[in-house]
Write a structure and sequence with these properties.
The protein is mainly α and about 180 residues long. It has two domains: about 80 residues, no CATH class; about 70 residues, no CATH class. It is built from seven helices and three strands.
Length: about 180
Amino acid sequence: MKDGARLARIRDLVAGIAPGEWTRVHDSEGCFIEARTKTGMLLPIARFDPGASEDEIAFVCDAAGSVQFLLELIDRAIAKTKALQPDRQGQPPAGPVADVRKNYAAEATMKCSEWRFLEFLAARHGLQEPLTTARGIQKLRSLLGINSRKELNMDDQAAARWKAMRGDFENWKRTGN
């Protein structure tokens, strides 16, 4: 599996276990992990063998939060790398829209990998669970009336619809509805 596909798969798995709040719990039978579901219910998901080390238990208990942290770190690193790339002034454009306008297709793809954007699509536009990147992208294409995200870079009307949706999302995040 290529790096991009593997990273997308990891993002989908993390989205599938959201909110990813795992707690270490002890009872008369030993140590186990409880996960908080989207509805707030606590669900036991794994029990440890009495021979498991403290480090092994801590590693597994922290796995969901650690993976989410690493994904956010990757996103920040990618954004910083893109920001540090030198301007291509004086060079011919790499493609028909490369330096003329923003890459809305890439922006839309990144938004569809964000848990909050998927929640927005579910709350405002009926995206069905499980809330995955792939389902978010499919819903986005449907809502924007496009067959391919590339159209966001080539069709001014599609780009305008994307910008309006992006604005709605930012407003939804601020107001909570």
